[in-house]
User: Fold these one by one.
Assistant:
Number 1:
Amino acid sequence: MQREVRKTVSVVFSDVAGSTALAEQLDPESLRRAMTRYFEVARRVHQRHGGVVEKFIGDAVMAVFGIPHVHEDDALRAVRAACELREEVAALNRELERELGVALHVRTGVNTGLVLAGDEQEGHAFVGGDTVNVAARLERAAGAGEVLVGEATHRLVADAVLVEPVAPFVPRGKTAPVAAFRLLEVAWDAAGLARRLDAPLVGRTGELDALDRLLDRAAAGPACELVTIFGDAGVGKSRLLRAFAERARERALVLSGGCPPYGEAVAAEVVGQLVAQAGRAGDGARTLGLALDMTDPRSIFRGVRLLLETLARARPVVVLLDDVHRAEQVLLDLVEYLHAFAGARLLLVVAARRELPGRWPGWNVRAAGTVLDLEPLVEAEAAELAAGLLGPDRLPAGTARQVAAWAEGNPLFVEQLLRDLADREDPGPLEPGGSWPVPPAVEALVAVELDRLTADERTVVELASVVGRVFDWRSVAALAPAPLGPRVVGVLLALTRRNLLQVADREHGEDAFSFRHRLLRDAAYQAIPKRERAILHVRAADHLQDEAVDHHLGQAYRYLAQLAGDEPRPAPVARPLRPGPAAEVTA
Amino acid sequence: MGASIDVRDLARAAAAGDQHGWDGLVERFGELVWSTTRAYGLNPGEGANAAQTTWLLLAEQLGHLEDQHERLGVWLAATARRESLRLLGAARVATAAPNSPPATEPAAGAQGREALLWRVVRELPEHCRRLLRVLLTVPPPSHEEVSAALDLPAAGIAAARAACLQDFRHRMSNFSIRTEPEGS
């Protein structure tokens, strides 16, 4: 089976300005050493943020964020790496100036876009195309020491960066200008796009009541209580934690920690956050924040327990741990240890995506304590949330309902779609639309879920996506390559346990699955190269009996015709003069 | 799903000078107008001209087309066909290859399967390529709209579609490219 996939990555392209002049100044041997040190710095910086240095081209370095695996924050990682590279080169320059009397002037371009990524087992070589070209073009447009960021990247990191716009330019071979921004600063602790945790909480009264009761139980003893909140990305875990913290503060001391998206010693950082808050809360805590060597649990587990127990003597303690799916095993060990050994008046609340049990096989349901499954909002609640975010003046009820339906109850998707719409449209009420483009941040989240699949799982999911949002597993088995056929149902059930798929309502047939979210199906489908899509549709037509046959043949033809050079529609037609009596001439 | 009602609303709003109404019409029918011009073998530049003229004509006449609001897609398809034919000139119509098969062979490096797949499309009869080009537009046009775009009787479209798709399927199997995926 082909393993090429279309995926969105971020590319950092850096080059040394004036390297020819440098070559004249320096002995070739010295130049070589200086460049080698620069390359080492670049490689280290990119790796630290999860990037892969794809190639060195002359003096240029191209790093890719998103291969072999995509992360939801690849764009932010790329921008952080570009910024850090600039700082590290400045430090390197101080050494070079001292030793050789020269300095390197590095220009950098960052861009995000679609690439066709090759098989990771074959060294993840990939065809860059436009995305890489634009990154390189941004690099050439940058001044010495500058980082220019493309528009697509900027849209994904807007809340974490300080930029100033530069004049748009037209890349070679293109007609449309590309917007670009000069990167001034990156906030190291900010998310690329801030969540609206200030939005009014909608729904979730049942979950809040359940948490209240658990706190009652913990407060009454005899032992500590643990609850794990499982939910998909964006479903509202953090928002729920925040709402519960506000309530619980009336009768308990609340400590909260969150796992950063990446980095070393995540667990130590989380424990550090808790200890710092505890230190502000009570005297007994001050002594503990000394050496947080999480590699040696002996030095810390008992200390944390004694600290929490000491605090709990004064009043109940609630510990909130967010994004625990990102944590190292040792943090889960700590949670499990506390649950097993800590005394009364302590409630541990852990929030994680559903992938957590899969990532740490030892961490099973028993270890999770009480489990709260956070489901998507029902449509009316999601519409209420949407109206609350934007206000009824901008978001008429009809549009709010459409937004809710589009998001299928995921609050983050609602938030991101509204942000996109509000940015794009003129001020004024947002009209009902239909075919809204998927916001890039949502696209990234969905891509991460698919990217984490094994090769077989990925194949099965792609075949299913050709059949449709809802599919009979036998159709997928019929499409699967021979050795995979008998295993298809097992793979589908495993994906159902992870909530990527769900068992479809009986009305769709006896043996039907469905993708959890329409966007998952769409993303899986769009990741298949068009040529393969066409072939799969023809094969689907061969295996199916009903009216779906013509649909599949039509799709197959459409993709082949596109590949055979059929032009896509050019940019929307120019707006003619406004028709009608209220006509107002606009240029 | 009440598409005609939506279109009436959009048309009324656009006629009253509402930009959102106009944008809604362009979103709904932009692909239909474009694929009609492409079906007649206009090159992308000519196609863009024909499409632009079609929309300009709509902007001029929208106020007087109230009785047509429900069938605006048909009006647009017919206008796009007329504009395409006008640009082509009657002489070229007879010989023009619909959907203008690209002048170039597949990009260098594309061989084997790729080239075969490409031939399947290129060698499909002209009337099929023309029909499928318009029929497979997103959102799917009504048979009346296809009929107006291609000047075909609406009643025969379903049968013609089925025949063309079967022809396509037959060619795909002839090139034996629909068997098992590569490698696996």
Number 2:
Amino acid sequence: MKRKHNSRLLAGFALVSLFALLGFVVPFFSPEDPRVWNTVPRNLPASAAHLLGTTSLGQDTFWFLTWAIRNSLIIGLITAVLATVIGLVVGLTAGFRGGTIDRVLTLLMDSFIVIPSLPILILLASLMKGRASIILVAGVLVIFNWPWPARQARASALSLRERDFVHTAWFSGESPLKITMRELLPFISSWALGNLINTVLVAVATEGALAVIGVSNQAQATLGTMIFWAMQHQALLAERWLWIGSPVVAIMLLFIGLFLTQTGLSQYSATKRGR
Amino acid sequence: MRFLVFLGSRILTFLMVVWIGITTAFFVPRFAPSNPVEAVLARLDSQKSFQPEQIQAMRESLMELFGLKGTLLQQYGSFLKRVLVSGDFGPSLTVYPTPVSTLVARALPWSLGLLFCSTIIAWVLGNSIGLIAGYWKDRTISRILEGTAILLYPIPYYILALALIILFAYVFPIFPFSFSAQGQPFEWAFIKSVIRGSFLPALSMVTVGLGWWVISMKALASNIMEEEYVYFARLKGVSDGGIMRGYVLRNALLPQVTMLALQLGGMFSGALLTEYLFGYPGVGTLIAQAVLGSDYNMILGTISFSIIAVAGATLIIDLAYPFLDPRIRYR
Amino acid sequence: MQAIRDLQAHYVTPTVTVRAVDGVSLDVREGEILGIAGESGCGKSTLVKAMYGYLPTPLTIAGGSISTTVRGPDGKPVTIESPDMRSIWWKHISYIPQGSMSVLNPVVRVENQFYDAVPKSDPRRRDRKALREQLVQYLRELDLPATVLKAYPHQLSGGMRQRVIVALATFLHPQLVLADEPTTALDVVVQRGILAMLTRLQKKMGNTLVIVSHDMGVHYQVTHRMAIMYAGKIVELGPTEQVFTNPRHPYTAMLIRSLPRVGQAGLREGIPGSPPSLITPPEGCRFAERCPHATALCRERVPDLIDVNETHQVACHLAPAGIAGGLAE
């Protein structure tokens, strides 16, 4: 049994680390800004000088890919961190306070979960029409991703509220904030981290979806915009597999890695609790 | 009494969702840097030339739709009335003068068909596979099934769609890379071309959708296998098949139905992009075209419609659940 | 009815083997109520599972045999060897498991849970209507209203549920009924009801009833004969009356002494210490560590079951000398 969850976590972690490397370390070595057009000859096949060939816009595919990975990861991380923090605060408040506040917040949470986010995101993004910075795109994504951690936080708060050690802390006069931080955090962190990783996945996927239609920031390099530009230049018809294939494969591997890490983590914490 | 409270809260959620969605649609044009109406009209005018009266009529319509006439409250009121009561979003700006509602109505059956079929197939197939994986959870077959599901689940719908397009439309050109229905409706040639064209989009949706159902069902099934009543059923001599059907499946299906409601939003978003990538004539392609062509009427119309549709479907499933769970039905 | 000879039923895992039942020989006689008593972990539940023929991994029969003789469809006796007893499950021998509160499927009506217990070969399976009528009749005899059939388990009270489960286990009129802790976790009133139900049925149908319980009081009230188990072995076996008035094994004596008696004041005595490991059992008598009368012989050699008289047997080196006998008043 032990070997099983270790292998998931290990595999996931390996994949994610690979991408972290590709996204945060490798881009520092790129010769110039790979977004600039016509810095290299167009449509070259893979070679030693250009690991994945070049695009129809005269960019080096490999370096563009690493920048794209970096930006996608940044968007994912910013969104995930913000959404998780907001979600935790809202969820814990709802769970602890109870009463009307809880009911209102829960209504809000449930509504946002049901709304199909993509159409609204498309609407919002389409009006910012390619001028939105990465930060803004991330901000927009946060709006739709805070309910999931919030729901779980609320459930945790509801169950923990009644536990003795919380009562003890409460009656010994500790402030609610301190109670939250000290007593509850260990319980929450087990699924919060998993939630965070999942949100990274969702955020990157959503940005990618927006980019593929063309409503994300087209000037920036993200995995989604890479696909967008490739499709704009008929990469499929012209059989430029490397240009359109590499971001597709990258997304697949990155997501599988993130997912494995997330489930590996939850299996790990389950066995730690002695399930 | 309890049921009424439940009913009330669900309907409230539904209304809330619709309200948030529509209101967002109402406020969005205000974020545009310049007067959106003029920008739209200018663009239209450069593409086709219109009579001054037509331009004025469109200006009126656009101003009303974008909520730019009158006080804020009046604007909001008339916007809501137009959208919710008459479903009138005005003419499409890219396919002038066809009304948006007509275009949506035309695209709707395609989307419904694709979404409905792929959701049902993914749900049924995924749950069946998950049931088998959970029932025999210590055997290799279970691990293989679950492993495959794990590889499929995280992939976004559109990525798999792209991968399938690359594989089966270009590398091995079996299927058309873009949807085109030939012939008249309900002729054999028509049906054949529809099936051929829908195959890849449906496959892409089903494959990704499967992942989640397999994983969640396996978890549910393997938990249920530990329950006392399954143990007792074995003692009674009930066969494997009988236990799977009557004991494990019946108990596992209930949470899976609620889960279906939660997944609808996600599946719809996935279908949206998949349709666009395949050129499938559904609401998704409509939205994408609207966005690319800055057809604000269409954008507002399709998006408002999508929100109402998904929220409505979720509501229906939510309401159906108590009737399926005897513990709630008989109290 | 059932002949158990030197049964070894172990839980075998790659790392350890737990010898839960380690050499048990016992005869279950037709028409009797046999009790199996002992503290938790002594192996009585495992024994009864083996008797039923329910051996989920890692439980295996590592040695010995169980032969079950039932009356076949034509009235002639048929003997089945463990562990292939599936063919007679429920129709000839049934099992009421421990902790039966959650033993009913929550989303299926009670009547369907009766139906799926009928073996496929039985013609009644096809004729639902006839079966239903039989069921209603049967339930009436057990003081259960016919409305119970259409109900879902959560609609029934705890006591009713328990009686439904007893009905489930007996409606096919099996010749041997095994009940594992049928009264545990129930309040005393319901306990009495269940025991009364089981015994009334036994009297009426003449089946054999085996009751496993750590509660000596239950055995005293209901059983004809009883076996005391300790650490995987039977240490005493005999008619209940005799075992209670004249226990020949120190363990039995201590068990009985720990029962409260009307009119007696003063502290009840527990038994100090805990049972030995079943993974690496000790060399000699397994009770030697806790036994106040243990000798060197006891610690070296495992005592066999020897006859005290025609019906009473005990496994203790000191039994012939009558050391452990009698109840402290």
Number 3:
Amino acid sequence: MLPGVVLVGFFIVYPIAKSFWMSITNWHLLKIADGHYFVGFANFKEFLSLTHLKKTISITILFEVVMVVGTIGVGMLIALLLNRDFFARPVVRGVSMLPWAIPAFVACKIFTLSLNGDYGMLAKLFMRIFNTTFTGYLSNEISAFIVVSTINIWKSFPFVSVMLLAALSTVPKDLYEAASIDGASKIRQFFSVTIPTIAPTIITLVILQAMASLRTFDIVYLMTEGGPNYATNVIGNDIYVNGFKLFKMGMASAEGVILFVVSMLFVVPYFLREGKEA
Amino acid sequence: MVRASKTMKSILLFLAVVALCLLVLVPFIFMVSYSLRTNAELYDFGITLIPKNITFSSYVDLWKNNAMLTTWIWNTLYVTGVSTLLVVIASTMMGYAIARFRFKGRKGIWFTLAMTQSIPWVIALIPLYMTLSSFKMLDRMNTVMWIYTACFIPTSTWLLVGFFKKIPQELDDAARIDGCSNWGVLLRIVLPVSMNALSAIALTAFIGGWGDYITATTILKSKGHWTLPIAIQYLKGPFYTEWTQIMALGTIISVPVVILFLWLEKYLVNLMAGGIKE
């Protein structure tokens, strides 16, 4: 018990507390020798005056929406498919969950190469299908965002599918029978029987996925580092780049504090729903 | 007529399953396909999934050009393996304590655990980096190992509390009447029925550590301490990027997690589904 508390305390809780302190002092990685002193809200001011601030915020929000809708949409389709009976279902379920296991950095390498204009198989396939010569998938603002979100969705839908699959198996069969006796079509059944029954799970998943997409930026960082022209610059990536690439630790901490407050918007409702257990 | 539409349906279902498998597997297929060719063949051919001359030269070159590859593999195994073991031990103890005993600060710990699993990790990373640097703990493999341990304890404990609560209290009581201590109950009664859940926990911790790039690259700087995710980023030839070798290393990195995942996936699904079926 105690060791776990100490570990989590030292490596997670203490740093978060410290980030609040750092956000109001002038930490700069290259100026550690100068010491650090209180600068009030200067870091926050610096952050708020960033020229790409607006873009970062809107990209983060867009990414949130795309991720929540995308993962739950794809996850639902696949959960519905896996919920049916067919040959070798357990194997297919295992295989379809594989993106969960594959390291993000490996996936990024594969996609970077496959979308490369010279020797990428995906790039060449698209060239042939759409009869175009376009190859700059990561240097065009729109396509870079699409690529990054697609990989993120590809990586995160298995978790959603598992949760939805579990929820789908709790829907009582006789509800469907009753509905079909009443003459409801399959699609009607889905919206009037399935969705209401698993609604609690869906809401939980929306909150979970919203938290997760605020958190993840490794795929963004590895594919584009937030570029081109900040088109994929989600806030997590921005913090990391400011802190570890530009060494503006103080400002990055201020950003972190803001992100902390924003993530509370999701954490608190999640708590109210799930945290009662204790 | 009814029969015909039934065959149609099963054909459609079959097609959907195939499409799902393709969606998931295409990147893997690309990766293996790329890794089995020479650099020259990367440029020459368009969309050829199966290379004309299958060769393992990229794997051989990978080993020849990187004298430290074995070290990197050992580093990764060490960091991920030990942290997985520690996560399982610590979260079992914490989970059991939280699920079964009422003690002071229990709510606080539960609250902290839930918070730490939902807060974006990057917020903690910057202050943690500063702290570690003042303790001279940067660039050590053990540091990364402890960080992984701390990072995966919250989620694991959270999942295990839910699981332990479902084990009937009567089992514990019976054992206690027979003279078992608290530890005895945990080791002799609870652990044997929890093996599946524990392997699921181990799986998530292992996947998490194995797939992490951001933390590793932030902490580990000197080449001898690198883990595989850092190594794969720097795998470049003298004149151009050695894509086939990168794909070969990607395949090597993916194989262990894929095997582990396909083996233990059912336990993970069961553990997570347990949270929904109230």
Number 4:
Amino acid sequence: MSEDLIIGIAGSGGDGVISAGESLLTAAALEGYHGIMTKSFGSQIRGGEAMCRLRLSTQPVLNPNGPLDVAVALNWDDFRRFGWELPVDATTMVIYESNTGVAPDNLPLEGVTPTTVFSVPITEMAVKNAGTDKAKNIVVVGLLAGWFGIGRESMLAGIRKKFAKKGATVVEGNVRAFQAGLEYAEAHPLGEDRKLSTPQGNRTAKLLTDGNEMCAAAAIFAGCTFFGGYPITPSTEIMQFLDREIWKYGGTVLQAEDEIAGIGAVVGASFAGKKAMTATSGPGMSLKTEMLGLASIAELPLVCVNVQRGGPSTGMPTKAEQSDLFQAVFSAHGDCLRPVLGPTSVADMFAMTVEAFNLAEYYQTPVILLSDQEISQRKETVEPIDVSKFTIVDRRRPTEAELVKYNRFKLTESGISPISQPGMLGGNYLAAGIEHNEMGRPTASGEMHARMNEKRFRKFAPLKNRRDLFVVEGENDAPIGLVSWGSVAGVAREALRLAEAEGLHAKLLVPKLLYPIAEQVYQDFFASVERGLFIEQSHQGQLCRLVRMFVDLPPLIKPLAKSGSNPIQPTEVLAMIRQMAAALQGSRTQSIGEPFTE
Amino acid sequence: MQTLEQILPVKFQAGDFKSDLKPIWCPGCGDFGVVTAITRALAAIGRPAHEIAFVSGIGCSSRIPGYTTAYGFNTVHGRSLPIAQGIKLANPELLVLVASGDGDGFSIGGGHVAHVIRRNIDLTYIVMDNQIYGLTKGQLSPTSQRGRKTATSTFGSLEEPVNPLLYVMGYGASFVAQGTPADMAGLARIIEEGIRFPGFAFINVQSPCVTYGEEDQQLKAHKTKMQNLQTLGHDVTDRAAATERAREYGAKLYTGILYRNPNPPSTYGEGVTLRQETLKKSAVPRHEILNRFLPSH
């Protein structure tokens, strides 16, 4: 029996690959499994290639992981287009559509010869039982449910519900297609070792959603009542969710004419006193930066979500990458600091979104929530979240006494000034992109500019002490240190566990506060570290370079960086940890010890 | 001690809306007249300053919110309309004014105009049109005449100007007017009418640049050139007639209301309020919103 099962399914856009994956994941979640489903597409609107990767486990799942245990190819051309996203090795069980005409011992996979291969007449089974090849995905679900014993009853109920509107004939056809898949699997039993164990212990209902919907729901929980934005892959589901929900809470969604107007309306709504948010991806962020600068100098709270995709420019719209960190940190001109948060999973997206609103309100600043395509579009089982443990922060509004002779940008000890809003008697002031004095009046005084800059930086001082925004795992005095952020942190966590199981001494730092750089946190972490890796999904390894701007790291710390759409796998990180451990013991076999250079 | 409410006057004067901040404008600038007209209009409207949000972009004209006592927001170049829309949608109770110049409103920010019009958000948009970039000291503006020589059109402009009146008529604006500080009473009146109009109102103000403007663009010239539309017997409800008059922008200086839709469409804000009211009852409490992610087939 296995505790962990990774299934990859690929086909053409119309094959229902994603819906098959979602059915399996839903059934698994209802039975108490943990799971993650990622999906990836070609950039075609319809048709083109589509795939999903499903990882189910009896234990919490940290990442989609590497090579597939089971590969399902509805056609080989589409399957092969995903390349490294669907890695197959000799142990992978391969299921494919027999009408592709491919011989089981001659699969079109370079350099691998899987030993367990099933050529299944999927289309024929769909047509025979449901009268249409549209039921191919139902056959696939039946096959997988049969082989791995997941959710037969709940899936049958699901099929009945899904097709109910189409009448009894369609329902029964699809039920037959599902059963045909089951029967095929039963007629071709697998070895015991391939079967998935049943979850033990805590089998309470889990939540099942993706990062974008979690972000939107968390925004509503945090009190967001205004969203302005412009559709852009892979962030659009945030706007779509809010467009269905936010009105119910007295809120508004404005689909603006462009990215600038989207965040512009958010700046306006924040000025008017509302908690407001926008969401975009890299190309949109490029356009939004002027408003980020305005909100920084006018000290207006807002949350700007960047769901990163491959860049630069249009780049790779449907693929995950972590290459917008520099942009987030250095967005907009002038001396400025904007907090940047990096959620590490769908579950974490809730806490980070609430945190983003809290920081924005407390520090009266734009906060950038740096998500990525994987987190945003992957579906994940989430343990129930006790929302009563979360505090909701509101901006510091002026007292009655402070309104008598009101100074909007009062130079307070904390650097945080009471903020009024239109409608508040006595709070009238001029907000501006131009430098201003304490009253908000325009100034060209160098002295006042220096004092205001100092205030706008000073107010963030407490943020660097937020150790709760950093996760440290592993042995405190380990000589090997890993740092990872965002969705890739789940890969690093799993690699650390694998390394620990081998008795290797390593630890991991996951910063969720990506900026400002909390120097002390990094210094403390690296105190014991002789060799280390920053594990990042980008060509440059941006966090590694950014941290070096602020912290003197030991020389043998370098990035393990890969461009987007080439997933980093836990075993790959483990191999690097082994090499570092070997080098530390003086028995190095391969050179990985060159100091970090540009 | 008096409460803040007790300090509020019962009846407002224009002076109640003028701040003590000294304008940066050149002596004789048309914008002095515009701020006076706006404060007169606000006094006539009678809403207290703290219920007014006055938004602008960048340019000489965009300094104007600071010269009033309203809540001001002197934003970035060309973006006053998106920000003003956010304010109005976030708090529909506010009176929201937007000020801009020809460059701010029809060049760098021109793309936003079409969309605020088609949304019909209840704002009053006042563009101070002087056919030149004054703040940056005399460059070509989108409303400069073809052939005009400026600091960036040394040998004369090679392009046709934008026609602001025709532009907004073309996108279906329901309230379009033009004024000049040469007719202060008329200007204050159309601004007041624009504010009272239930929906998006556009007011083009021919506001001369005394430093970089040309002789025939000054207030003195306006006094002889301007033609009051009411005196001309213009029917403000006649869209076709208004469009014809709008075509004469540049050649003639019409003042007054060019077009007022007799059956104005509902505003975006009304739609928002209705939707919020309708959907309110189906809201789950915020702390239960995650329950929607409980899996089910």
